[in-house]
Protein backbone atom coordinates (compact mmCIF):
# COMPACT_ATOMS: atom_id res chain seq x y z
CA UNK A 1 0.00 0.00 0.00
CA UNK A 2 1.62 3.32 -1.00
CA UNK A 3 2.36 5.83 1.67
CA UNK A 4 0.25 8.95 1.60
CA UNK A 5 2.03 12.26 1.27
CA UNK A 6 0.21 13.87 4.18
CA UNK A 7 2.39 12.50 6.95
CA UNK A 8 5.35 11.08 5.04
CA UNK A 9 8.69 10.67 6.90
CA UNK A 10 10.02 13.77 5.15
CA UNK A 11 7.03 15.76 6.40
CA UNK A 12 7.52 14.52 9.97
CA UNK A 13 11.22 15.41 9.79
CA UNK A 14 10.39 18.90 8.52
CA UNK A 15 7.88 19.41 11.34
CA UNK A 16 10.42 18.26 13.92
CA UNK A 17 13.07 20.61 12.50
CA UNK A 18 10.58 23.50 12.56
CA UNK A 19 9.69 22.82 16.19
CA UNK A 20 13.36 22.61 17.15
CA UNK A 21 14.16 25.86 15.36
CA UNK A 22 11.21 27.66 16.94
CA UNK A 23 12.16 26.42 20.40
CA UNK A 24 15.75 27.53 19.84
CA UNK A 25 14.66 31.06 18.87
CA UNK A 26 12.38 31.21 21.92
CA UNK A 27 15.21 30.17 24.25
CA UNK A 28 17.53 32.70 22.59
CA UNK A 29 15.00 35.50 23.15
CA UNK A 30 14.66 34.52 26.81
CA UNK A 31 18.44 34.40 27.22
CA UNK A 32 18.88 37.87 25.69
CA UNK A 33 16.03 39.54 27.59
CA UNK A 34 16.49 37.70 30.86
CA UNK A 35 13.85 36.92 33.46
CA UNK A 36 12.51 39.38 36.06
CA UNK A 37 13.92 38.93 39.59
CA UNK A 38 11.80 36.92 41.98
CA UNK A 39 11.18 37.54 45.64
CA UNK A 40 11.98 35.04 48.38
CA UNK A 41 8.29 34.10 48.67
CA UNK A 42 8.09 33.40 44.93
CA UNK A 43 11.26 31.28 45.06
CA UNK A 44 9.91 29.26 48.00
CA UNK A 45 6.55 28.80 46.26
CA UNK A 46 8.31 27.62 43.09
CA UNK A 47 10.40 25.14 45.10
CA UNK A 48 7.28 23.71 46.72
CA UNK A 49 5.61 23.47 43.34
CA UNK A 50 8.59 21.61 41.85
CA UNK A 51 8.60 19.19 44.79
CA UNK A 52 4.88 18.52 44.31
CA UNK A 53 5.34 17.94 40.57
CA UNK A 54 8.26 15.56 41.18
CA UNK A 55 6.25 13.58 43.73
CA UNK A 56 3.23 13.51 41.40
CA UNK A 57 5.28 12.29 38.44
CA UNK A 58 6.93 9.64 40.57
CA UNK A 59 3.57 8.24 41.60
CA UNK A 60 1.93 8.31 38.18
CA UNK A 61 4.78 7.60 35.76
CA UNK A 62 4.82 3.82 36.23
CA UNK A 63 1.02 3.55 35.92
CA UNK A 64 1.06 5.74 32.79
CA UNK A 65 3.82 3.67 31.14
CA UNK A 66 2.10 0.35 31.89
CA UNK A 67 -1.27 1.60 30.64
CA UNK A 68 0.26 3.06 27.47
CA UNK A 69 2.06 -0.22 26.72
CA UNK A 70 -1.15 -2.21 27.31
CA UNK A 71 -3.17 0.06 24.99
CA UNK A 72 -0.45 -0.08 22.33
CA UNK A 73 -0.35 -3.88 22.46
CA UNK A 74 -4.14 -4.24 22.32
CA UNK A 75 -4.88 -1.64 19.66
CA UNK A 76 -1.61 -0.92 17.86
CA UNK A 77 -2.40 2.80 17.91
CA UNK A 78 0.42 5.06 19.18
CA UNK A 79 -1.95 8.02 19.53
CA UNK A 80 -4.30 6.00 21.74
CA UNK A 81 -1.36 4.90 23.90
CA UNK A 82 -0.22 8.52 24.29
CA UNK A 83 -3.78 9.62 25.13
CA UNK A 84 -4.05 6.87 27.76
CA UNK A 85 -0.79 8.01 29.37
CA UNK A 86 -1.94 11.64 29.45
CA UNK A 87 -5.30 10.59 30.87
CA UNK A 88 -3.50 8.87 33.74
CA UNK A 89 -1.77 12.11 34.71
CA UNK A 90 -4.91 14.29 34.55
CA UNK A 91 -7.44 11.78 35.88
CA UNK A 92 -7.78 13.51 39.26
CA UNK A 93 -8.11 16.92 37.62
CA UNK A 94 -10.83 15.80 35.23
CA UNK A 95 -12.83 13.24 37.21
CA UNK A 96 -11.82 13.85 40.80
CA UNK A 97 -12.57 16.91 42.88
CA UNK A 98 -14.60 15.25 45.63
CA UNK A 99 -11.58 14.99 47.92
CA UNK A 100 -10.65 18.63 47.28
CA UNK A 101 -14.20 19.74 48.06
CA UNK A 102 -14.22 17.74 51.30
CA UNK A 103 -10.86 19.24 52.29
CA UNK A 104 -12.11 22.77 51.55
CA UNK A 105 -15.27 22.19 53.58
CA UNK A 106 -13.22 20.78 56.47
CA UNK A 107 -10.98 23.84 56.38
CA UNK A 108 -13.90 26.28 56.44
CA UNK A 109 -15.56 24.33 59.27
CA UNK A 110 -12.28 24.36 61.20
CA UNK A 111 -12.08 28.14 60.67
CA UNK A 112 -15.59 28.52 62.09
CA UNK A 113 -14.73 26.43 65.17
CA UNK A 114 -11.48 28.32 65.74
CA UNK A 115 -13.25 31.67 65.38
CA UNK A 116 -15.81 30.64 67.98
CA UNK A 117 -13.04 29.47 70.31
CA UNK A 118 -11.19 32.74 69.81
CA UNK A 119 -14.38 34.69 70.54
CA UNK A 120 -15.01 32.77 73.77
CA UNK A 121 -11.39 33.19 74.87
CA UNK A 122 -11.51 36.95 74.30
CA UNK A 123 -14.69 37.07 76.38
CA UNK A 124 -12.56 36.34 79.45
CA UNK A 125 -10.88 39.77 79.19
CA UNK A 126 -7.84 38.27 77.43
CA UNK A 127 -5.90 40.13 74.78
CA UNK A 128 -5.71 38.93 71.20
CA UNK A 129 -2.00 38.02 71.53
CA UNK A 130 -2.81 35.70 74.43
CA UNK A 131 -6.09 34.37 73.00
CA UNK A 132 -4.55 33.06 69.76
CA UNK A 133 -2.11 30.60 71.43
CA UNK A 134 -4.83 29.48 73.84
CA UNK A 135 -7.30 28.78 71.02
CA UNK A 136 -4.68 26.97 68.93
CA UNK A 137 -4.35 24.11 71.40
CA UNK A 138 -7.84 22.73 70.66
CA UNK A 139 -7.91 23.53 66.95
CA UNK A 140 -9.04 21.08 64.26
CA UNK A 141 -6.41 19.07 62.34
CA UNK A 142 -7.07 21.11 59.19
CA UNK A 143 -5.75 24.25 60.95
CA UNK A 144 -3.33 22.81 63.48
CA UNK A 145 -0.12 23.27 61.51
CA UNK A 146 -0.86 26.84 60.26
CA UNK A 147 -1.94 27.88 63.77
CA UNK A 148 1.20 26.39 65.30
CA UNK A 149 3.27 28.37 62.80
CA UNK A 150 1.32 31.50 63.76
CA UNK A 151 2.04 30.90 67.45
CA UNK A 152 5.74 30.36 66.68
CA UNK A 153 5.89 33.68 64.83
CA UNK A 154 4.30 35.47 67.77
CA UNK A 155 6.82 33.88 70.15
CA UNK A 156 9.68 35.02 67.90
CA UNK A 157 8.61 38.66 68.43
CA UNK A 158 6.90 39.07 65.05
CA UNK A 159 4.27 41.77 65.16
CA UNK A 160 0.70 40.52 65.28
CA UNK A 161 -0.42 42.07 61.93
CA UNK A 162 2.60 40.63 60.11
CA UNK A 163 2.10 37.21 61.71
CA UNK A 164 -1.56 37.21 60.73
CA UNK A 165 -0.66 38.21 57.18
CA UNK A 166 1.69 35.21 57.01
CA UNK A 167 -1.12 33.08 58.42
CA UNK A 168 -3.44 34.22 55.62
CA UNK A 169 -0.81 33.45 52.98
CA UNK A 170 -0.35 29.96 54.41
CA UNK A 171 -4.07 29.20 54.45
CA UNK A 172 -4.66 30.68 50.96
CA UNK A 173 -8.44 30.75 51.42
CA UNK A 174 -10.89 33.54 50.68
CA UNK A 175 -13.07 32.62 53.68
CA UNK A 176 -10.06 32.89 55.98
CA UNK A 177 -9.14 36.33 54.58
CA UNK A 178 -12.34 37.88 55.97
CA UNK A 179 -11.66 36.57 59.47
CA UNK A 180 -7.96 37.42 59.43
CA UNK A 181 -8.63 40.91 58.07
CA UNK A 182 -10.90 41.58 61.06
CA UNK A 183 -8.17 40.40 63.44
CA UNK A 184 -5.56 42.61 61.73
CA UNK A 185 -7.82 45.67 61.97
CA UNK A 186 -8.43 45.02 65.66
CA UNK A 187 -4.71 44.49 66.27
CA UNK A 188 -3.96 47.89 64.73
CA UNK A 189 -6.90 49.94 65.99
CA UNK A 190 -7.69 48.15 69.28
CA UNK A 191 -11.37 49.00 68.93
CA UNK A 192 -14.32 47.34 70.67
CA UNK A 193 -16.80 44.90 69.19
CA UNK A 194 -14.38 42.15 68.19
CA UNK A 195 -16.47 39.47 69.91
CA UNK A 196 -19.60 40.37 67.94
CA UNK A 197 -17.67 40.46 64.66
CA UNK A 198 -16.09 37.06 65.31
CA UNK A 199 -19.47 35.58 66.20
CA UNK A 200 -21.02 36.86 62.97
CA UNK A 201 -18.08 35.60 60.91
CA UNK A 202 -18.26 32.15 62.52
CA UNK A 203 -21.97 31.96 61.75
CA UNK A 204 -21.31 32.98 58.14
CA UNK A 205 -18.60 30.31 57.81
CA UNK A 206 -20.93 27.60 59.08
CA UNK A 207 -23.62 28.70 56.63
CA UNK A 208 -21.04 28.44 53.84
CA UNK A 209 -20.18 24.89 54.93
CA UNK A 210 -23.86 23.91 54.87
CA UNK A 211 -24.27 25.40 51.40
CA UNK A 212 -21.24 23.52 50.09
CA UNK A 213 -22.49 20.26 51.58
CA UNK A 214 -25.86 20.64 49.85
CA UNK A 215 -24.22 21.45 46.51
CA UNK A 216 -21.79 18.53 46.85
CA UNK A 217 -24.63 16.10 47.62
CA UNK A 218 -26.56 17.26 44.56
CA UNK A 219 -23.53 16.92 42.30
CA UNK A 220 -22.54 13.43 43.50
CA UNK A 221 -24.97 11.72 41.10
CA UNK A 222 -23.91 14.00 38.23
CA UNK A 223 -20.24 13.23 38.88
CA UNK A 224 -20.96 9.50 38.86
CA UNK A 225 -22.88 9.83 35.57
CA UNK A 226 -19.93 11.66 34.01
CA UNK A 227 -17.56 8.90 35.13
CA UNK A 228 -19.82 6.26 33.56
CA UNK A 229 -19.98 8.20 30.28
CA UNK A 230 -16.19 8.54 30.23
CA UNK A 231 -15.65 4.84 30.98
CA UNK A 232 -18.01 3.76 28.19
CA UNK A 233 -16.44 6.26 25.74
CA UNK A 234 -12.98 4.85 26.45
CA UNK A 235 -13.95 1.16 26.57
CA UNK A 236 -15.96 1.22 23.33
CA UNK A 237 -13.09 1.96 20.87
CA UNK A 238 -10.75 -0.38 22.75
CA UNK A 239 -13.34 -3.17 22.53
CA UNK A 240 -13.86 -2.54 18.83
CA UNK A 241 -10.12 -2.71 18.14
CA UNK A 242 -9.93 -6.06 19.94
CA UNK A 243 -13.12 -7.84 18.85
CA UNK A 244 -13.86 -6.14 15.52
CA UNK A 245 -10.58 -4.88 14.14
CA UNK A 246 -11.93 -4.62 10.59
CA UNK A 247 -14.34 -1.87 11.65
CA UNK A 248 -11.55 0.37 12.97
CA UNK A 249 -8.96 -0.57 10.32
CA UNK A 250 -8.90 2.97 8.79
CA UNK A 251 -7.28 4.22 12.00
CA UNK A 252 -4.23 2.05 11.35
CA UNK A 253 -2.43 4.35 8.90
CA UNK A 254 -0.90 7.79 9.43
CA UNK A 255 -3.98 9.72 8.35
CA UNK A 256 -6.18 7.61 10.61
CA UNK A 257 -3.87 8.31 13.56
CA UNK A 258 -4.11 12.03 12.82
CA UNK A 259 -7.91 11.81 12.85
CA UNK A 260 -7.80 9.75 16.03
CA UNK A 261 -5.63 12.41 17.67
CA UNK A 262 -8.17 15.08 16.74
CA UNK A 263 -10.96 12.95 18.20
CA UNK A 264 -8.98 12.47 21.44
CA UNK A 265 -8.44 16.23 21.69
CA UNK A 266 -12.16 16.89 21.24
CA UNK A 267 -13.03 14.28 23.87
CA UNK A 268 -10.47 15.80 26.25
CA UNK A 269 -11.94 19.28 25.80
CA UNK A 270 -15.42 17.90 26.45
CA UNK A 271 -14.27 16.15 29.63
CA UNK A 272 -12.54 19.33 30.81
CA UNK A 273 -15.69 21.37 30.14
CA UNK A 274 -17.82 18.92 32.15
CA UNK A 275 -15.30 19.15 34.98
CA UNK A 276 -15.46 22.96 34.97
CA UNK A 277 -19.26 22.80 35.26
CA UNK A 278 -19.01 20.74 38.45
CA UNK A 279 -16.49 23.03 40.17
CA UNK A 280 -17.70 25.29 42.97
CA UNK A 281 -16.76 28.91 42.28
CA UNK A 282 -15.29 30.69 45.28
CA UNK A 283 -14.47 34.41 45.50
CA UNK A 284 -10.91 35.53 44.91
CA UNK A 285 -8.66 36.38 47.80
CA UNK A 286 -8.16 40.04 48.67
CA UNK A 287 -5.33 39.71 51.22
CA UNK A 288 -2.65 39.13 48.60
CA UNK A 289 0.77 40.63 48.97
CA UNK A 290 1.63 43.09 46.22
CA UNK A 291 4.42 42.31 43.79
CA UNK A 292 7.68 44.30 44.00
CA UNK A 293 6.44 46.51 41.14
CA UNK A 294 3.24 47.11 43.09
CA UNK A 295 5.23 48.10 46.18
CA UNK A 296 7.25 50.58 44.08
CA UNK A 297 4.05 52.12 42.70
CA UNK A 298 2.59 52.35 46.22
CA UNK A 299 5.72 54.13 47.42
CA UNK A 300 5.59 56.51 44.45
CA UNK A 301 1.90 57.24 45.11
CA UNK A 302 2.64 57.88 48.77
CA UNK A 303 5.47 60.24 47.83
CA UNK A 304 3.26 62.09 45.35
CA UNK A 305 0.51 62.45 47.96
CA UNK A 306 2.88 63.78 50.61
CA UNK A 307 2.87 67.46 49.41
CA UNK A 308 -0.95 67.41 49.44
CA UNK A 309 -0.85 66.52 53.16
CA UNK A 310 1.38 69.46 53.91
CA UNK A 311 4.63 67.52 53.81
CA UNK A 312 6.76 69.36 51.35
CA UNK A 313 9.19 67.55 49.11
CA UNK A 314 12.61 66.80 50.49
CA UNK A 315 15.27 69.03 48.94
CA UNK A 316 18.86 67.85 48.98
CA UNK A 317 21.59 70.45 49.25
UniProtKB/TrEMBL annotation:
Ranges for domain Type II secretion system protein GspF: 115-236
Transmembrane annotation, as ranges: 12-32, 228-248, 254-274
Biased composition (Low complexity): 301-317
Keyword Transmembrane helix: yes
Topology of this chain in the membrane: Multi-pass membrane protein
Residue numbers spanned by region Disordered: 298-317
InterPro entries in alphabetical order: T2SS_GspF_dom (IPR018076), T2SS_GspF_sf (IPR042094)
Subcellular location: Cell membrane
This protein's UniProt keywords: Cell membrane, Membrane, Transmembrane, Transmembrane helix
Family annotation (Pfam families): T2SSF
Leader sequence residues: none
Protein name as it appears in the record: Type II secretion system protein
Organism per entry: Streptomyces spiramenti
Amino acid sequence: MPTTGILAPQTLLALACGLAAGGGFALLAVALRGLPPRTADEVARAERRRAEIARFLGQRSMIAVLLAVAVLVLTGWPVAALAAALLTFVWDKLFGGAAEERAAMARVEALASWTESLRDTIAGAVGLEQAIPASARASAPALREPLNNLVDRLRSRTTLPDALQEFAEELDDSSADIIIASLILNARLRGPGLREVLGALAKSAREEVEMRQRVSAQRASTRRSVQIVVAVSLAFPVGLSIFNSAYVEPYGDALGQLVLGLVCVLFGLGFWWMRSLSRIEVPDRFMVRPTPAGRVREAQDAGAAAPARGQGPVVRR
